[in-house]
Design a protein that fits this description.
There is one protein chain. With 246 residues, the chain is an alpha/beta fold. It folds into two domains: 112 residues, D-Maltodextrin-Binding Protein, domain 2 (3-Layer(aba) Sandwich), CATH 3.40.190; 102 residues, 3-Layer(aba) Sandwich (D-Maltodextrin-Binding Protein, domain 2). 35% of the residues lie in helices and 25% in strands. It is built from nine helices and ten strands. It has a five-stranded mixed beta sheet. Helix 2 runs parallel beside helix 3. It is elongated, with a radius of gyration of 19 Å. The N terminus is likely disordered.
Length: 246
């Protein structure tokens, strides 16, 4: 694989904190990047963006933070824990997922407000929740949706998970009837099927990364983030269903 961007950074061990929705991408990227950048080793840790941001605030060793939003990286900038500003490197869309077999008979997103439907969601601080709430608000304005769609959806939420990947896992296990997740996360599971979301209501989730100020390998960390936003990194992200950040 060809290298793109400042690949002449000194060899280093780089710890990358990534949003849970990037887990599969980062597993693919690790050997490819290390092969193309001799002497550089990536250590990957994934969780919800909010949880990772909190860990960095608490002093956890990290070089690059890749978030499923721009809000959490900006928090680090605002409190002086980032070197430079956020770099947008990818975007995502949302979808509704149901267990394989669709036992609740969910046909369209309007069914998320149907009485008795069990919705699995993520915690309030997790980026997917912000995006999902925006999607629900957008859906409420679509023709054929009840005026109290937002309230009905909220009343149907039966549990909140740590991150979007956990929502997918719970739906795949049949612990709920439906959930709203990133389109890329839905593609990683063979235990769920997707229910299309009207394009006019969908929400663009923008992913951004930042270099952590306490990094001992700032040059190598910046080289990695630059590479991720350049053609080689974009090609891998695209193969998982991510789209370029606008």
């Amino acid at each position: 694989m060809a290298t793109t961007g400042p690949s002449d950074a000194p060899p280093a061990d780089i710890t990358v904190y990534g949003a849970s929705s990037l887990a599969s991408v980062l597993v693919r990227i690790k050997p490819l990047y290390e092969a193309a950048h001799a002497g550089t080793t990536l250590t990957i840790a994934t969780d919800s963006s909010a949880a990772l941001e909190t860990k960095i605030e608490q002093g956890a060793p990290c070089d690059v933070f890749l978030s499923a939003d721009s809000i959490n990286p900006q928090k680090l900038v605002d409190i002086g824990l980032a070197s430079g500003g956020p770099t947008k490197f990818a975007a995502n869309l949302l979808t509704v997922i149901v267990p394989a077999g669709n036992p609740a008979g969910i046909q369209t997103p309007v069914d998320l407000a149907r009485s008795g439907v069990k919705v699995i969601a993520a915690g309030d601080a997790v980026p997917i929740t912000k995006y999902a709430n925006q999607l629900v608000a957008n859906l409420a304005k679509q023709p054929g949706y009840p005026v109290d769609f937002v309230a009905r959806y909220a009343a149907n939420v039966v549990s909140r998970q740590d991150n979007a990947a956990a929502v997918v896992a719970q739906i795949g296990l049949g612990e709920g009837d439906a959930g709203i997740v990133y389109r890329t996360d839905a593609k990683t599971s063979t235990s769920v099927i997707t229910i299309p979301v009207p394009s006019a209501a969908n929400v663009l989730a923008t992913y951004a990364g930042v270099i952590v100020k306490t990094s001992r390998n700032t040059a190598a960390a910046r080289a990695f983030l630059t590479w991720l936003a350049a053609p080689d990194g974009q090609a891998i992200l695209g193969s998982f269903g991510f789209i370029p950040a606008s």
